[in-house]
Amino acid sequence: MIIEQLPLRQSPTPPPQTPTLTIDTSKHGAGPIPNKHIPYCSPGPAPGAHQQAPVTPPDTPPTKHSFLQTFSPLHPANAHPRINKSPPVYSIDASTLAKALDYQATQQLPDANQVFPWLHGLHPNNQVQLTFFIARRKSVRATPKCLRGLTIVKVGEDTTQSKLRGALTEEEILLTQAQGSPNFLEVDPRDGFSVRNFQIQATKMAMVSDIVLYRDKNTSEKRLRDLAKKFSSAQRAYEQKRTVTEADVPSFHTFILNNDFKEFEEYYPELVSIDSRGCSTDQVMDFFQWERQEMCSMSKASAIATNVSLGPTPDSSLCGSSTEPRESYDILIEASDLATPPDLATLKRIQELSSSAPQHLEFPSSGSIVPPPRSNSEPETITTMCEWIYSVSSADSSQDTEDDEHDADGDIQMKNLGGRPRKVLIHCADGYTETTLLGVAYYMYSEGVPLHDAWLQLHCKKQRNFFAYPSDVSLLSSLQCRILASSPRFRARTFKAALKEPAWLSRMDGSLPSRILPYMYLGNLGHANNPDLLRSIGIAQVLSVGEPVNWSKGQLDKWGSENLLLIDRVQDNGVDPLLDEFERCLDFIRKSNLESSVPPSPYRRLTAHRERQSQGHSDPRPLPRWRLPLRNHLHRRSHVLSPPLFPARIVSSFLPQF
Fold this sequence. Notes:
The chain has 3 domains: 77-272, no CATH class; 285-399 and 410-501, Protein tyrosine phosphatase superfamily (Protein-Tyrosine Phosphatase, Chain A); 511-658, Protein-Tyrosine Phosphatase, Chain A. Helix content is 28%, strand content 13%. It has 20 helices and 20 strands. It has helices at 94-105, 112-115, 127-134, 201-206, 221-243, 261-267, 287-298, 316-319, 344-353, 381-393, 436-447, 451-460, 470-486, 492-498, 503-506, 525-528, 531-536, 553-559, 582-594, 648-654, and strands spanning 82-84, 89-92, 149-155, 163-164, 174-175, 183-184, 209-215, 254-257, 272-274, 302-305, 308-312, 331-336, 359-364, 424-428, 514-517, 520-522, 541-545, 564-567, 607-610, 632-636. α10 crosses α11 (436-447) and α11 (436-447) runs parallel beside α13. Residues 1-21, 28-68, 397-406, 596-632 and 636-658 have low confidence and may be disordered.
């Protein structure tokens, strides 16, 4: 099976139906916020009338904790000073909040079946969502009674300072109307289907939580108390709404902190996410910050050839000291969707000016150049650009002469006019997507290697990640003979090798699996069904979750059944549990590290692959570990010098995030 990647570079998530993105769906037509990292995945077929039960693994047997009601040091509320009678508002200090947070963090979570699909969003008018879940489970719309959360709300206009960990704003929870009592936001999507409505879950959890409000030094005590009354009124309204259809509805309450924020900075710094100066403390799990740091580390600029590097656009505000300043380079080439290839006059002028100050120019990004319809009409722009980059970055300029102004075809030759070699950076915003086309082409030219070798060497030897489109593969395949013939390292045997492309290249969608750990990759079903590609980068084992690999008998025999594991009967539908399979997955990975029947490869490592099924797309871009979808294809890639067994804590820290 080959997953075809469309040449469009837009998110597969449909656009919102309203001009302004919002999680408030109280008004008709408000759609869920699109998430470009998590595209739509098929939930699988709904059970038909002829089926007695969905084809899924059996439910986890009930345990003594199945209906455990979680508590908190804040409950009961009347144990704390009451500062407002109606609606009730209570007061606590920083010490009490710290104890409540610590207590909650040590409690066992309820079974997922008790909180989902309620957390997926079940609007009474969303027949698509309701029909899907009701076909699999009855009484899905009941609010869970096993939850007593703790939601912290920061009161104040400035959210860039004085922030406790996990703190939300009033706009994320409360719907304040001009007339009538306040209510919680209605965040359940009115239409459409999704089991990835993560953007609504913080708001929904606030509905089943005690709520603690605090203020910064620029916010008055009066505003804090007024807002606390509104939250308490919203809790009473939601409680009354639930009592119409439910019995024994638990009560939740609103509290305000009677300490200044500096109390937390002095005595409870582990609870501070952003201090009063607006600086991040790195004391808490900030997934967005971690994602940014991991992206900076993954795409950090590095040399792919002499004086030529690939990396992100230099920006110290994003990556801090991990990125080199712009002044470190003489020429910065930005790969852009809107760029047009520079002409020879522009390149010559850039070369001259780069001797005195850093120069910037643009070049079309990956997917921007259409493959030629015939081999004899291939575009000259890529080859010309490679020749120019090599000429300005090459340390050998002794052969330049004033007499040889034109080559055999009459074109102006590229010369190092400034005497010294220039340091060149090919860059884009994230450092690995838009730059792929030019980066791979230049590596082919400078090293004199065919396309398939360039792809593997850049990733395995140079440790570069990249993302290309099928059109890029077609374009570079059609150009590689011309690129190699122009290469300063041209060899006749290399030229012949370029004509013998391996079978895996034609089945490649333009991407390799994403390296998420030193020994594990994440990819899609297309990667998993390209075993020759996996073997080329040293993948030794395959763990496929949800979908079997479609290999020939010869390929299966070559790999060995002991190197393949399929976790079957699991659909990415928000219902089927994967937790029961974790130990089996861990055992497979542990055993794989002790025994491997796959012969050594020039490039050995552990690899993982994730399936994305969205409008035919296969997006292998690295995702942070906390956003990994349910269905995955995991592949072990061993290393000759690696320890015989990876520590279980490292492996388990990744696997439970599926």
